[in-house]
Structure formats: C-alpha cells, structure tokens
Amino acid sequence: MIKGRSRFGSEEADLVTQALNSQDLWPYSYPSTTRPRSFMIEANRAVEEYFGSTSPDTAPFIVPTSSGTASIHVALGGLQVAAGSEVIVPPMTDMGTISPVIVNNNIPVFADVDPASGLITPQTVRDVITPRTGAVIAVHLTGTPVDIPGIRTMLTDIGRTDIMIIEDVAQGLGATLNGQPLGTLGDAGCFSLNSQKHISVGEGGFVLLQTEVNRLRCHSFSDKHRDRLGQGSDTEHGKYKGVGLSLRMSEIQGAMLLAQLPKLEDFAASRNAFGVELDRRLAQAGLTPQTHLPGAYPTFFFHMFATKNEYDRATRVAAVRAINQIVASDLGVRFSTSYSYKDQPMYKYDVFTNRNFSHNTQGIWPAELVAQTLYPNDVTNGFYDYTQVSCPNAESYLKRSFSLYFDERHQPAHATRVADAIIDVFNKHNIT
Questions:
Q1: Which domain of life is it from (predicted)?
Q2: What torsion, rounded to 10 degrees, do the Cα atoms 38, 43, 46, 52 define?
Q3: 147-195: per-residue pLDDT in tens?
Q4: Phi, psi for 26 (deg, rounded to 5)
Q5: In this structure, are residues 220 and 244 in contact, taking their beta carbons and an 8 Å threshold?
Q6: Omega before 31 within 30 of 0, i.e. cis
Q7: What are the sequence ranges of the domains in the chain?
Q8: DSSP tag of 194
Q9: How many CA atoms, within 13 angstroms, populate the side-chain half-sphere of residue 375?
Q10: In angstroms, what CA-CA distances link 35 with 20, 65, 231, 259?
Q11: Kindly report the CA angle at 88 between 85 and 94, in degrees rounded to 5?
C-alpha cells in the first residue's frame, strides 16, 4: 500500500508561524517592528523569478489572487473585456472557468474540441468568433497544452488581434510548450493553488501578465481599485477611479506559497513520468490517451483517455467501480468517468439551459441586455439559447473518456499496475 502524501512539512509550518507571530496579517503594513517582511509580496517576487528563469524572453508580471476562479475574474476585469461581449470557452472544464465570465457581464460562447485531445483548437475557436467576441479562455485541461501559438496566428490572420487570449492554467502548473511555460503564451495566464493542485496554499492563485500596463490594471481590479502600488491619484489606477473586488492573496497564502514553490519542479516531474507511462501502456492496449502537441510537456493534474466506442453511463460506472476496487485503496488513486458532471458538456447544465444567471424569474440577463444595446441588429431577448448549442466532438468525447486522479507520490511502476487493472476490467466488460 502506498504511503500517505507528505507535501507539507517544516518549511510551511515555519513560515506560517512567522506570519502569525507578527500579529499583523495585512500584507502592506511592513516594514515595522513586528513586520520585517511581507510574505505575500515575497511570494509575488518568487513567482516572478521562477517564471523569469524558466522563460527569460517572456518574463511575466504577477498579480497574486485568492483562488483560480478569482484569477480568471481578475484577468477579465483587468484586461477590460467589455460588458456584453462574448467570451469563447470550452464545453469541458470546471465551472470556475465560466462563472467569472457570467459575473463579469460577459456571454459564454462554447467552442467544440479536438476529438483526440478534448481541447479547443484554432479552428474550433475560429468557427464561433463573431464581431461581438472579446476574449477566448483556453483551458489546458489535465495540464496538457492548448495550441495557443496557433490561436494567436489565427487571430492575426483574420485581423482580430483585439481578442484577448486568457489561459486557464489551473491544472497545468509546471507544464510547457516548446520549453515555454503555460501561462506565458497568451495575454494572461490564470493559476490555481487550491488543495488539489500540483502545489497548494489551501486556496489561492495568481495571474501572469505580459505587460506592466495589464499588471497594474489587474492589480487594481483585484483590490477594490485601491492604489496599493503607488501609481498616483492622477493616473487611471487612482483610488476608486474604477470598479474592483477584494480578490487579493493573504499573508498566510503567501507564506505557504514561498514554501511550496521550490517543490514544484519535482512534483511536476513525478506527475509527468506517471502520466507518460500510463499513456504508453494504454495505447499498447488499443485505448486512446489524450493526445499532446509536439513539444508539449504535460504535468497531468489528472490522466484522461478515451475508448473507440461510446458506452452508456451505467456500463461506464460499473467499470469504474470495478477498477477502483482493485486500485483505489492500495495505490491511493481514484478512477472516474469523464471530467464532467454526469458526462455532460457544460452548456447542458441547468444553469445554462435555464439561463439562471441573475436570480430572477423573468429570464432577464444583464449581459444580454448590454449586448442588445451594443449590437441592436444582431442580439434580441433570448438570443443566447444554450438549449440550441451543439459541440458534437465534446459530447462524443464525454461518452468515451475516463479520468484517473493521482498525485506526486505515484511513479511509473504504479502506472503499470493501474493500466493492468483498467485493461483487465475493460476486457471483462467488453469495453474497447
């Protein structure tokens, strides 16, 4: 039986204790007799140094946040994605990707995915671009890179460089594409540090930005539009010259991040080695692991693969239960059906089919009202009807795919045992 996780230790305990002993957890009230340092600000610098060292040509600016969901919201607000504009999103992701779009008074538009990777592509994004498009959120699902350079080239080719590219890297810490870290390929990279991620501060996150202008705007949006960085009242960042929320990182989260960040490379390498070996073993058995772009270094927040044929949910659930009986308690992994609630694409969730976005019974959606004002010849009441959305590749993938959740403890030898269990159970259930 595999040992329990031990990713937190004396380093985290020491720094958190120092933060508590200061008796002051406000990150901007230093230096003082009790506050010789700010852990949040130090963590901010450490993350900048980490990404600067791994990608010196595109060393980013950092805005620390309270969660991965907050990171998406900060990016939308700081990049000034206008209310009423459309934001392209994938149908296979966490609700934390899309909730900020709705709260920011933008309109989610779903792009289909590649049938082999489950990721959006330059072509599927191109298929849903309209004059109303303001941004695209590319989710690096499982820590596998989306073709951001291809999306950038496509936007240039069609003359739409005004569309912001926001990377959701919640599952991709440590992953790279052609040696460049995910999160540094688009206009903003949004990260999560919650309890399940590669490294964790409990809850937290950060946004990577490519320009100082965008960093300042995102920072203002993340902190109630207070001028914490001293830009001056005569600038756009002056106190209360715009709207912002309280989405900043805390001192405790900063202390945790300072201790966790040095562990990222080893944790990511372990996940990559396990995932690559499981890819190899399942492919040998005729199954279809999630495909990766040339030059991709995925870090496998979880592992995803697909069968050739679609199966009803009861058959899939029975296979999952049988596999978990073999490997769950012994190896500390968890096998599941697709990465989606009840194997459904997000646009089939009740919140979309019922358009339950603004807590009223009349179906009034503020974002759509703004769009009607901006685009009166295009948008009418009820124009965005999610019951009519169809992403056939995503719907098929969700009926064919399975997910395995593991962590940094697991080695290639464990992947072999997991693969053997999957192959054995699938053979007994006639799943191919």
A1: Bacteria
A2: -120
A3: 999 999 999 999 999 999 999 999 999 999 999 999 999 999 999 999 9
A4: -85, 120
A5: yes
A6: yes
A7: 10-261, 264-343+394-429
A8: B
A9: 17
A10: 10, 21, 24, 19
A11: 120
Q: Both tokens of residue 28?
A: 């901007």
Backbone phi and psi for residue 6, each to the nearest 5 degrees, phi listed first:
-140, 50
- Give the class (CATH, top level) of 264-343+394-429: alpha beta
Hey, what are 40's tokens?
């949040």
The string of pLDDT tens digits covering residues 106-135 is: 999 999 999 999 999 999 999 999 999 999
The tokens for 123 are 């072509």
Report the C-alpha gap between 301 and 154 in whole angstroms: 28
Task: Give Cα 314 distance to the centre of its chain.
Answer: 29
Which amino acid, residue 269?
Answer: A
Q: What is the CB neighbour count within 10 angstroms for residue 320? A: 18
Q: Which CATH class is domain 10-261?
A: alpha beta
Strand partners, 167: 138, 189
Please classify residue 88 by burial: count the beta carbons closer than 10 Å to its beta carbon, then call 0-12 exposed, 13-18 middle and 19+ buried. Answer: buried
pLDDT at 32: 65
The neighbour count for residue 324, using CB atoms within 10 Å, is 16
pLDDT digits (tens, 9 = 90+) for 325-379: 999 989 999 999 988 778 899 999 999 999 989 877 677 899 999 999 999 999 9
Maximum Cα interatomic distance, the chain, rounded to a whole number of Å:
71
Tokens of residue 178, six digits: 């052609």
Q: Which residues of 252-273 are buried (b: 16+ CB within 10 A; e: fewer)?
A: bbbbbbbbbbebbeebbebbbe
